[in-house]
Amino acid sequence: MPVKVLTGNYAVAEAVRLARVQVVAAYPITPQTTIVEKISEMAESGLLDARVLRVESEHSALAAVYAAASAGARAFTATASHGLLYMHEVVWWAAGARIPLVMAVVTRAIGPPWNIHVDHQDIMDQRDSGWIIGIAQENQEVLDLILQAFKISEDPRVYLPVMIGLDGFILSHTSAPVNVPEQDEVDSWLPPRRQPYVITPESKIVMGNISDDEDHFMMRYSMHVAMNEAKKVIDEVDREYGEIFGRSYGGLVECYKCEDSKFNAIITGSWAGDAKEAVNMLREEGYQVGLVRIRFLRPWPRERLMELLTGVKGVIVFDRAISMGSTGILLNDVVSTLYGNGTSIRGVIAGLTGVDVKPAEMYSVIKEFIDSVEEYGFIYEPVTWLLPRKYRRIEEVAR
Amino acid sequence: MGVSLKRIPKKKYLMPGNAACPGCPETMGMRYLKMALGDNFVMVIPAGCSSVIQGIAPKSGIYSSILNIVFAAGASAAAGMKAAFEALGRDDVNVVVWAGDGGTGDIGFQALSGAAERDDDIIYICVDNEAYMNTGIQRSSLTPYGAWTTTTWKGKQEHKKNIPMILIAHGVKYVATATVGYPMDFIEKVKRASQIRGFKYIHLLAPCPVGWKFDPALTPNLGQLAVKTGLYPLYEFNQGAFRLSPIAARYKDPSKRAPIIEYLKPQGRYRHILNDPEALRRLEEYINEVWKWVAMMEKHYGAGKG
Questions:
Q1: Closest chain A residue to B69 measured between Cα atoms?
Q2: What is the pLDDT of residues A224-265, one digit of tens each?
Q3: Where are the domains of chain B?
Q4: Which fold would CATH assign to domain B10-301?
């Protein structure tokens, strides 16, 4: 298995090539652009036997790949931020039609003001749509997740589209060594495309005309059932991928030093790497702390989290996205998972709009939480803010 | 290429009991479309009357494979489907967009323009009933001047957007205008379009008894009157060659045209302007404008030119 030095975006393109994607449509948006560029280059040089549609908008990009997938092709698109919001209507349509499809989302803040740096507001905004949503921590995982996404999406127990998040610039434009599997290995692991129905002249299938409300209700219900099935499929695919390609990540969640921990940080995305460093710093000081990394936001890994977190004294949840007027997005799901079992919980909103959060800052925040719980007992603080350093100082002065 | 009635398939492509209103031009048009293309095509239908006309899932009143799609994505979805058929080795399959005037000239215009510029190999049919009929007769950019709608109570103040000419300006392979008033002409044009590789656009004027407020028995007559008054010239722009369609060519001569009032009178939507000379003058002016475009096309792209 050759090791290549790849940016996260090129890792996406390599995975698309290996999955033998047949139709790609995309519209350029920073920081996703180099995915589209690379795929176009691969298609033009014959490395990838795919039709590439250089469409005029993201709305058209997703509509085109959704329709291509409906007609039986393995299809892919990629976007970010405003592009993802612009295609939002089609995001729902594709999921509701139960068409297997894969999209890379290079996570990026939403304006105004214009801002190309990372946060998770864009991908979190899709969480209720019926897409399976996975989020990578590093470039190797980006390649592995995109490949796995095709297998998960096309599994008859699932038949839902899958989006894979990779953090803008932190992963998309940063090079790292990536093991790239051989084509024949992928071919024997990834079965030919399967999907619930194919629209051809002969099939006489009509998708999406008006239905009875009660039937429509049951379509929604079936999507939720499929989401629950997907939990098994995601874990299965992660395990078998590990056996063949040598890399497993824990399926729905990654447990980092969380087996024996009394406290856990919960987080998703590339900054989990910084949080792991913070955990190591605290471990050195004797804190019994671990980390749970959410690899799949949807389906939400409720059962697995209950296994990992039952009996834990406290969890601190880092959110890079917020539901304004409510809480962080992960926090909300964590609280619903832990309801009634007496765990102390603190939500921390941080790293929005590309603001960098250092391991040392995470260290302080986690340590302060643990010390408070140990000193005062049960704590429930759903929303606390780790403001940018400049504003933190102003707040201190004001106090 | 003439089309003989004898050679048109007799198959029933539209079932009785679909959800169309009486006198609906869209079901007529769809029947003609199927007569022209037979079975080897799939339809892409963005939001509009035809989304409803199909009937209630899991059944459908239309004997065809249909991908319904969000309002603004008719052309792009069709382009994606065509790419899939090509990738799967089925280049012969026609993909046809069946969109209303809103899905074409307004909310779907960006996707349409994109597909046209890319020369995606699809047939795009705009079924133009001149307003947002499905949501209850609101004005669109293709509603003509003077017409009453539920968002223009005193009559629309702007003229109709000239989508076919805008498409010609995109440099596409094929653009034609047709109406359900002349089925054979429409069928011929669809057949011709289906034999060309690249982007094809057919504008199908579809008089709507509900939105235009006329007797549902008159749907085809209104389509014919639009042509005979000169309001709606029938033409074809086929790979660089422009020609007026034979049934409509005589209306180039203003003296051959039927008076505009004959077209307006049966339609309740024009009732308030029938006695308004200024409004009638503006409509006459519009007809002149439309024919200026035709004259320009004939001059540069007519028989023997270019």
A1: A208
A2: 999 999 999 999 999 999 999 999 999 999 999 999 999 999
A3: 10-301
A4: Rossmann fold (3.40.50)
